[in-house]
Amino acid sequence: MRPLKPQRYRLTPELLLDAYRHGLFPMAEDRHDPRLYWIEPELRGVIPLDDFHVPKRLARTVKQGTFAVRIDCAFGGVIEACARPAPGRWTTWINDEIIELYTRLHAMGHAHSVECWQGDRLVGGLYGIAIDGAFFGESMFSTETDSSKVALVHLVARLKAGGFRLLDAQFVTKHLARFGAFEVPRSIYKAMLAEALAAPADFYRFSAGARPADVLQAITRKS
User: What is the pTM of this model?
Assistant: First the structure.
């Protein structure tokens, strides 16, 4: 990991976008560490858009419309929830500077949130960065069973409908592997990234009020 030395560097949203275009992303050691580090894994996690796997039980949850899914309605709430400790995760890599930077990127139209609601309660979601045809997934949270998974399903449907070519997961976890996530060497990832950055895409092409059946149909449709 390469540290961003606070006394020499002031990370801006523009520099952050440029780093993503070159395959890097920032992380803190933990929630209260002010230092940021550039990360460029040897093996990069990727979630396939055309071969995204939706487990049967999760597909039923999506069809039932258990959660109201909204886009970019509570970005601040999502990133703050992702930064909080959760069962099995006593700390996170999202510090105050990351929250500030990504909130600014949201205002610029590059950072997006997919949110699951029950009534007026935000119960799950995820956020990430969109640059041309690449979407860089950052983090997700859940306070109700399957809420973050439903958000991921809706994200994939939206990316496919919008013409995106790459869904970067950074690292592959057991949680993501069940959806088909896999690792690629850095050189292959860089080629995938270059292709995605050359492709036009529209995060808002998919209807915000799409029916659950439309969401699942969008995922099964081949690009």
Answer: 0.92
8 A C-beta contact, residue 103 and residue 76: yes
Q: Read off the pLDDT of residues 74-103 as tens digits, 9 standing for 90 and up.
A: 999 999 999 987 766 666 889 999 999 999
Reduced to 3 states (helix: H, G, I; strand: E, B; else coil), residue 18 is: helix
Q: Which of 187, 161, 152 is nearest to 62 (CA)?
A: 152
Please report the beta strands in the chain, taking only residues with DSSP state E, as ranges in sequence order. Answer: 2-4, 25-27, 36-39, 43-46, 68-71, 111-118, 121-131, 134-142, 166-170, 182-185
Residue 10: which of 83, 99, 95, 101 has the closest Cα?
A: 101
Contact 98, 28 (CB under 8 A): yes
